[in-house]
Amino acid sequence: MKWPFAFKAMQPTRIAAADGVELVLEDGRRILDAAGGAIVANVGHGRRQVADAMRDALLRCSYAVPPWLTPERERLLDRLATDWLPANLTRVHLTCSGSEGVEAALKIVAAYQAARGLPSKTKVIARTPSYHGVTLATLGIGGHESRKAGLRHVLVDAPRVPAPYPLRDPGGDGVAAYVAAIEETITREGPETVAALLAEPIVGSSGGALVPPPDYWPQVRALCDRHDILLVTDEVMTGFGRTGATFALDHFPGTTADVMVAGKGMAGGYAPITGVFATEVIGSAIATAGLDVMFHTFAAQPAACAAADEVLTILTDEDLVRRAAVTGSRLKADLEEAFGQHPHVAEVRGEGLLLAIEIVADRATLARFPASARLSGRVLGEAFARGVSFYPGGNGEIRDVVVMGPPFTITDVDADRIVTTLVAAVDAAVAATNR
Fold this sequence. Notes:
The protein is an alpha/beta fold. It contains 13 helices and 15 strands. The strands form three sheets. Strands 4-10-9-8-7-5-6 form a seven-stranded mixed β-sheet, with helices on both faces. The chain has a four-stranded mixed β-sheet with strand order 1-2-3-13. Strand 14 and strand 15 form a beta hairpin.
């Protein structure tokens, strides 16, 4: 049998175990997981209390259809409402993955507009770069071009606007240009046809931890309100503390979402679960109209809910969101010092423990290395050989971005190792490319 499905010449990396902030290879080598897997492992690997909670849940009830309540589901809902969710998000729908969560959010948006007698409001404006999942619908609406390869002919595109990219700000017009692009798109499409804007508050791996200017989201929120458009935030990667705040949108005070999708950090990689959260207005309108939001068979599986409840408890009890903010701030400062004068690193960016560097051929002009150089792949390989795993960033058009999303439990020693390893890996990869 061949694994993965699209089998290539290179053999897959074989992981024998994972412990704390490290991965253990078959030969016993230990790899510092500076990627958190896929920016997932927020509380670290091997937490016995999470495994015990899942075991107990499975023995008590291995499966129940998602609309029913189990003790695990009730505890998770209470935990979310009490400790985590913004006060305006009272309706909850659970899925297994971020892709399913975003697709469910799109269906909720469409059902809401229909429920209030506006079935012509069907379009969802999206941004580039972005990543919203790998179903046909979420690939089509996302702004990750390389993942559309071989599928573009079957994807349905969306009205599209640029996400803020301060390093390469087109025209240097800042927030005004980005907000104007959204308004122009709404006007062109017709406000009566636009249902929502879908966006990551801080762009994840597709752009490499792209943080917008502080006045961007308040202006976008006001624009959505003015045109009766829902704001849907994709916090699959950034939610539950990853950026050093409960959710990434919290970095922009006074800005709220109408629908939010958040998943990876919800169970920290221990189980597949994602939450889709919406306002009472949206939920009650759909219910009053006699419509439904259909569940997926394995959504809200009791063991997954138990895992999420336990992970969220750990995050609170160990004050790990604050720790992500403090450790992330230090790590970012150390990266900025290490790469401050580096001729091939244009920027260190991000918030909390979602950080990235962008590698360029020429720092002065921001010219990129040719795509054929596969530079970020070289960097990841050099780093892995030195005992640290990083995450590849970019969307095909944006490239040579290396992303960091380690567990919130990393120590200062781990952070120092991340910096020294990344510097060595960049230097080795660039030298090999230039030979």
